[in-house]
Amino acid sequence: MTAIRSVVLGCGSYLPERVLTNAELATKIDTSDEWIVQRTGIRERHIAADDEFTSHLAIKAARAALAHARLDAQAIDLIVLATSTPDNTFPATAVAVQHGLGISHGAAFDLQAVCSGFVFALATADNFLRAGAYKRALVIGAETFSRILDWDDRGTCVLFGDGAGAVVLEAQQQQAGNASDRGVLTTHLRSDGRHKSKLFVDGGPGSTRTVGHLRMEGREVFKHAVGMITDVIVDAFNATGITAENIDWFIPHQANKRIIDASAHKLHIAPQKVVLTVDKHGNTSAASIPLALAVAVKDGRVKKGDLLLLEAMGGGFTWGSALLRW
Ligand code: UT7
User: Fold this and answer.
1) Which terminal Cβ of the chain has fewer Cβ within 10 Å, N or C?
2) Domain spans of the chain, in order of start
3) Do the Cβ atoms of 251 and 258 come closer than 8 Å?
4) 221: Cβ below 6 Å to ligand 1?
């Protein structure tokens, strides 16, 4: 039985030039490289230049993804951009990206699910492609979290970084119609607004008329993370018959190495199958999964036919998983 699947044609990423190390942070606030590495696994992060906006990072990642896919931008008819740090309140950063790529057909919109944004955007684009509404999509995660951090709050400012990653998806007829197909095999999204005050930004156009700063009850987020992540991965396994042993690469949201290790351990995913970039990138929110994916594709780990498991959890809370065959 054939099925339409969203097949990944290419991926790409962009990180701002400026690297901020733990040692440099320790000269400004009461923290240490040792504390940050031990509690999070983070060693450094990239910070956007003053004149570098989320759309600029996103355009560079999108161009890299298009080049990897050997595709002209005109072939794209859908852009879904996940971000919590848009250039402006409106219009969507996605239309700035669309314009920057020279596209004026199809649709482009932003999607906001904080750190789960890329998985939510991938699921959204996948549903549009499988429904036949569009043919080729750019799915982008792009963030400049450095702009919403309280640089005096050591509990949060050491955790985040800036960056962007993108994938190009194409609707393709696959022959088997089962888990051996290439493309996105299943996606599972969840939210629970009861947790909305555990990780939030204390400003917004509709309330304070300001941008605000990120606030987090870190320990509370940590407490829920592993259970939520593993639940939604089990949903993906149950929907497809795929098990942890079948996974070639686990590409999780990169918030904290301890959360990633604990999730992989609970799911019996071997440590050598886990793609880790949190040490170099910090938590780049919606950008973290495509940034990690681009690293593993570029260094040759991810090969055609490999089975990839993606997951994320973040503010809201929101959480989600995706299984895809490369
Ligand atoms: O991507 C969205 C999802 N977000 C997350 O997944 C983040 C989840 N949370 C976490 O990753 C962890 O909770 C943190 C890394 C944020 C914190 O680690 P923790 O082990 O939960 O530490 P804690 O918040 O319980 O703080 C322990 C101690 C505190 O001192 P006292 O009260 O025990 O004296 C903090 O004040 O560490 C202190 N502390 C720091 N010390 C040095 C907090 N931040 C720092 C810091 N440097 N940067």
Assistant:
1) N
2) 3-174, 183-325
3) no
4) yes
Task: Give yes or no: 283 in active site.
Answer: yes
Query: Ligand 1: does its nearest atom lie under 6 Å from the Cβ of 147?
Result: no
Residue of the CA atom closest to atom 44 of ligand 1: 155
Q: Please give the CATH superfamily to which domain 183-325 belongs.
A: Thiolase/Chalcone synthase (3.40.47.10)
Determine if the pTM surpasses 0.85: yes
Whose structure tokens read 């969507």? 92
Core vs surface per residue 121-133: b (16+ CB within 10 A) or e? bbbbbbebbeeee
Instruction: Give the angle 31-33-35 at the CA atoms, nearest 5°.
Output: 65
- Do the two domains 3-174 and 183-325 of this chain adopt the same fold? yes
Q: What is the structure's pLDDT at 175?
A: 87
Statement: residue 1 has pLDDT above 90:
no
**Which of these is catalytic: 56, 115, 188, 213?**
115
Q: Is the CB of 227 under 6 A from ligand 1?
A: no
Ligand 1 pocket test, candidate residues 20, 27, 39, most atoms within 8 A of CB = 39
Is 115 catalytic? The answer is yes
E-strand ranges in the chain read 3-14, 18-21, 44-47, 78-82, 107-111, 136-144, 162-174, 183-191, 199-201, 214-216, 249-252, 307-314, 318-325
Nearest CA to ligand 1 atom 42: 31
Nearest CA to ligand 1 atom 6: 255
Structure confidence by residue, pLDDT tens digits, 259-278:
999 999 999 999 999 999 99
The fold adopted by the segment(s) 3-174 is Peroxisomal Thiolase; Chain A, domain 1 (3.40.47)
- Ligand 1, atom 29: closest residue by C-alpha: 155
Q: What is the DSSP letter of 306?
A: -
How confident is the model over 172-181, as pLDDT tens digits?
999 898 999 9
